[in-house]
Write a sequence for this structure.
């Protein structure tokens, strides 16, 4: 780890995913079928939604956390599930509502949600769990447990140490004279990747434009099967099974992702 690395899990004051300009760029990335940058490609989403839907009976109530523009949600609806999706991005939720009239989509931070225990299954897809701090993950698990019926399932995916093993610390600089992802104004971005150990990494983006300087931190925590099972058990979840991806690929323990099915005890 570099000497100038920020303290582990340090948050920054500048808004990030809910910044209007960045949110618009994120929506565009979600809807781009040629990249996995924000959402996975359509064929994988089709397979993943079908596998997740197979875990519960038709008509089950599903809570999709960090649902984005509803790419999974509308597939779940078409497969006969009753969907509630939450996301902090108003633009993404507006898109989801327009493209899935059967779903219930809400602008909501899943760390502050307070649903009653009425859901049969909850999902958190594309490794969002690892972007949270230790305390935030505990809060999330407790809120998901409160929203699930007894015996309800929580399906999520995370990166594994194998993903981090292929990444090294590096710094890049990029001039954006016509504006870009982080700002509509001409700006410069200095991006640095830090590795804290074999589990925790940070992507730090320093954005400088006419409005000033902003710093954005994007954390990721990687998990082994046992580590994820331990965190889940501490909040009342039973670890049901593991897979190499969230489309239900057989578990080998060698993949860069790990999907887990947890059950509320």
């Amino acid at each position: 780890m570099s000497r100038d690395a920020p303290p582990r899990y340090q948050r920054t004051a500048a808004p990030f995913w809910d910044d209007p300009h960045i949110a618009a760029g994120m929506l565009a990335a979600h809807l781009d079928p040629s990249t996995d940058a924000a959402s996975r490609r359509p064929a994988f989403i089709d397979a993943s939604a079908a596998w997740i839907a197979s875990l519960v009976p038709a008509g089950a109530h599903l809570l999709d956390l960090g649902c984005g523009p509803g790419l999974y949600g509308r597939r779940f609806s078409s497969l006969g599930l009753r969907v509630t999706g939450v996301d902090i991005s108003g633009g993404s939720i507006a898109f989801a509502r327009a493209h899935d009239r059967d779903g219930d989509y809400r602008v909501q931070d899943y760390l502050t949600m307070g649903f009653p225990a009425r859901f049969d299954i909850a999902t958190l897809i594309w490794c969002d769990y690892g972007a949270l701090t230790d305390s935030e993950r505990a809060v999330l698990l407790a809120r998901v447990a409160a929203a699930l019926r007894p015996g309800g399932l929580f399906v999520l995916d995370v990166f594994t140490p194998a993903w981090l093993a292929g990444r090294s610390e590096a710094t890049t600089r990029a001039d954006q004279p016509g504006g870009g992802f982080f700002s509509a104004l001409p700006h410069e971005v200095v991006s640095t990747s830090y590795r804290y150990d074999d589990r925790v990494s940070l992507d730090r983006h320093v954005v400088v434009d006419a409005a000033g300087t902003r710093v954005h931190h994007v954390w990721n925590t990687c998990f082994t099967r046992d580590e994820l099972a331990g965190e889940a058990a501490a909040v009342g979840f039973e670890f049901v099974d593991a897979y190499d991806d969230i489309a239900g690929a057989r578990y080998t323990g060698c993949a860069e992702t790990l999907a887990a099915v947890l059950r509320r005890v």
User: Anything to note?
Assistant: The chain has a mean pLDDT of 95.
